What does this fold into?
Amino acid sequence: MRNTFTTCTGVVILFAIATVSCKTINPGEVGFKVQRGVIKPGILTQGRHHYNPFVSKIRKFNTRITEFSTVMSPPTKEGLEVKVDLTVLYHIKPEAAPEIYTNVGMDYGHKIVVNNFMAIVREYTMKYTAIDLLGERETIEKNIEDKLRDAISPYGIVLDDVLVKDIDMPTEVMHAIENNAKAEQIAKQMTVELQTKRKQQDFDIETREKELKFAIEKQKSDSLMMQIDANAIKNYQIIINSSLTDRLLKYKSIEVTKELVKSPNAKVIITDGKSMMLNSIGDK
It folds into this structure.
């Protein structure tokens, strides 16, 4: 009877051992066997895997994208603290799981990713003033991503993305930004007003120049017309004077005398032989 009980007990123990010595690797996970402190070659993919719990164990690693979010208060170049809402996304290469376990351990996310991430963020915020952080947000995000990728990739960890979701500035910085924005707005308004005034002045000067040019051109035209008229009169007089010879004048005098002789009125003609003076005496 005792032997039968012992046999049953042994069967139960063996069944329990067989049940415990089976581990499931889920989708998005990989695993590997560690036997007597030595990592066995090969990566265990999704499915059920048996092992001897007395001499070995199976370590599982998550290969899905892991998200780490935090709100930091790193110092700026001028020593102010700004609140920065950050997120980093990363995952491990399946084939790198044994090496990560050997060199870092299961807490690789905090030791490698988080520590490097926070140190790099502090390093870059200290290069900028609080106001510049807002203007250089995309540049800082890109620089942090590049440097973090260089820091974690040798471990077999892949960086998927770095997000700077929000930057909360101190009150004095926000006031400075508002004052700066107002000053810029006033400066822009003054610039627009000066440009408008200058354009109007340029227009007025151009208009006056055109009017003056027109007046000068008109004076030149009037002067030219007067000169042309004067020349025409002068030329006419020259022609007349050149045509009035002594013979022509004598001939005209004779013609006039003839006409006077034909007239029925009494006449007295007085002449010096060169020219003639006529005095007409009417009938009495």
